[in-house]
């Protein structure tokens, strides 16, 4: 199967590049310079009408949205590598739930802070509300991680990579995890994985 990742450094494509590395999957990388508008070229829009990275092609067939790629990579390649739960197990239900939680529920708070930052007013009402919303969700995550070392239990999985990528980015833009020691320690372990060190 041929995989091509369209990416830009330090972007939403980064977790996908890391997941491909964690899975040890051979693939081609095509850099799309989103600072010069390459993402709006017709050839790229034909792959992803949103004009965004990441975009992944699988034997030439395109897919978009990082969350969709993470779930698909887990299902397609993760199970056989011990990095994703087997179909039909309770752990698989948790995998879908937590990855979606990170991108959708936590992500909804994250974008409020991101928007405030982009406006140059990270401490305005939106920024504060976003940070508060994330803090409440981090408390929930902290309670989850108090009972298990990794998101799904005793073993690292791509769920840690997905959730950790979102939480790591939010910490980077100003929603620290220091008040949540289980999250803080888990995030450090996730970020120490060799696959997270690649240039992406
Ligand atoms: N929800 C999308 C977000 C993708 C996204 O916002 N990508 C940004 C880079 S972080 C992008 O390509 N921006 C280019 C643009 O908006 O023109 C996903 O998860 O794939």
TrEMBL record:
The keyword Transferase applies. GO terms for molecular function: transferase activity. Pfam families: GST_C_2, GST_N_2. CDD domains: GST_N_GTT1_like. Gene3D superfamilies: 1.20.1050.10, Glutaredoxin. The keyword Transferase applies. Keywords: Transferase. Residues 88-200 form the GST C-terminal domain. It comes from Hydrogenophaga borbori. Residues 1-81 form the GST N-terminal domain. InterPro entries: Glutathione-S-Trfase_C-like (IPR010987), Glutathione-S-Trfase_C_sf (IPR036282), Glutathione_S-Trfase (IPR040079), Glutathione_S-Trfase_N (IPR004045), Thioredoxin-like_sf (IPR036249). This is Glutathione S-transferase family protein. PROSITE patterns: GST_CTER (PS50405), GST_NTER (PS50404).
């Amino acid at each position: 199967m041929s995989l091509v990742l369209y990416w830009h450094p330090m972007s939403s494509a980064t977790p996908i590049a890391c997941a491909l590395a964690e899975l040890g999957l051979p693939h081609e990388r095509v850099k799309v310079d989103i600072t010069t508008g390459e993402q709006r070229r017709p050839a790229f829009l034909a792959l992803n009408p949103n004009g965004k990275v990441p975009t992944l092609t699988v034997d030439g067939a395109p897919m978009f949205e990082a969350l969709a790629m993470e779930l698909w990579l887990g299902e397609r390649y993760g199970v056989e590598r011990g990095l994703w739960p087997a179909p039909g197990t309770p752990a698989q239900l948790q995998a879908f739930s937590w990855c979606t939680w990170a991108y959708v529920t936590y992500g909804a708070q994250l974008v409020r802070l991101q928007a405030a930052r982009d406006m140059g007013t990270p401490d305005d009402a939106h920024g504060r509300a976003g940070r508060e919303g994330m803090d409440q969700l981090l408390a929930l995550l902290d309670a989850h991680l108090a009972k298990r070392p990794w998101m799904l239990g005793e073993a690292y999985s791509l769920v840690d990579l997905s959730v950790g990528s979102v939480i790591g980015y939010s910490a980077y833009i100003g929603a620290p995890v220091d008040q949540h020691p289980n999250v803080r320690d888990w995030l450090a372990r996730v970020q120490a994985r060799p696959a997270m060190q690649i240039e992406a």
